[in-house]
Each structure stands twice: as C-alpha cells, then as structure tokens.
Structure prediction request, 255 residues.
Amino acid sequence: LRPFIRDCIVFPVLGSRPHCNEISGSDLDGDLYWVYWGTDLIVKNIIPPLAYTAASKKTVPEVTPELIINHILNTMDDQTSGIICSTHSVIADKDPDGTKSKDCKYLAKLFPRAIDSVKTGEEINMEMVKELREKWCGSYPTWMMKEDKSIYKSESINGYLFNKAQDLTINRRDYNFMHVKYDKMNQDTRIKIQTEDDKRQLFGNRKRCGLSIQLIRIPRYLNSLKHMSLSRKKYRILLFTCLLTVIIICCVLFQ
Prediction:
C-alpha cells in the first residue's frame, strides 16, 4: 500500500490495544503525529507503553445556562494541562532516569486525563503536581525558554538540539513542498542549512533565535497582565462580560 497512500498514517486493527492509544493515549480526535522516514534516528530500546485509563464522564441532572457559562469560563481559564506538561519537561530533563522516572510516568498518565477533562468533567487533583513543582521546578532548562524564571544550561538531547538550532536557519528556497514519488521523497525534500555568510547577509549580527524569543515573549507578557491587574474573580467576570457582549452582537446581526 505504501506507493499508493500519501499523507496518511495507517494503524493496524489487530492486537490487544490500538497503537494510537499507546502513543500518549491518543484517540484520533485531531491528534498530531510526526513521521520520520530517515535512517539516522533509530529506536533501539522498545519500552512498553503506559496504560492510559479513560475517566468516566461526569453527569448532571440538568444542563442550565449557569452551568454552561461556568463550564466555558473554567475551560478558558484552565491551565492544568500546561502546568502538568511543563513540570514533566523539567523532571525529564533533570532526573537521571528521564521520562522513565516514577514522577514522569505519573504526570504522563495524568496529562491525557487533564486534556479530556473538558469533555469528561473530571476535576484533576493537582496536589501531587504542586509537590513535584516545588521539588523540581526551582529552575528551568534553557530550551523551555522561560525567560522570567531561573534557567540553567541543559545537558540533555533537548538542550543539545536547542543550542544547535539557535545558530541555524532554513533556506526555504531549497525546501520542496510539492508531492514527489516515495522513492525520491528524502532526496527532493531535503532541508539545506545556510552558511554563516548567508546568515550575516540576511540578518546582520542578529541571531534568528533572539528574534524568535522576542516574539514569543509578547503573548507571554500579555498573558501575565491579566493576573497582575485583576484578581481571579474579576478576571472571570470580565471574561463573562466579553462573552455576553459577543452573544448579544451576534443576535443583533443575525436577526
């Protein structure tokens, strides 16, 4: 089938458990996958996948407007999955056992439940996560780009790739986005790295990574303003007011 299928991932239907579920508990509802056709990166050690047990959906006797509004506001203001993800990244970088450590496995099992909590209504207990943050998150690796936190130079593979990427730029003219035959895919879509002379001609003495960091800081600073200027309660009221305003405008426009 390989020569006839393009831009498609085929999972087997046989076996005790779907492969997609073995990959971080994926359920094919918009999940993204990365496919690597090269031969330089080869997985030698196969580690059994974690068991991702889905939480049962929460039921309510009656769906009321107040319940819907609270659900929307809680969803918009929910940072649970982000906190779990960043904590997992720090522990994986610092712990000698990496992602195979006990703490990382705990967070890896908790993360898909936090993602699905919007659909299931499950309230994630963050007490253990808070303890792990206090234990591990006193500083962050440079590749996480936490400019407002204490950082350290990471010796992990992520740190190595991040440091290398800071000095590289991609020449888009050498990247072919057109569909090609499978046997020529690697050859025709190879990304060529520019030389130092090319970079100086395009960017002068500025590093591209420095520009990227400045752009990344903007939404992060905007996100922090809401916590500095307004309390949590006032922020929720503001969100509700904005949401109500949008609903009223839509009703007026589409009458």
About this structure: The chain has one domain: 66-253.
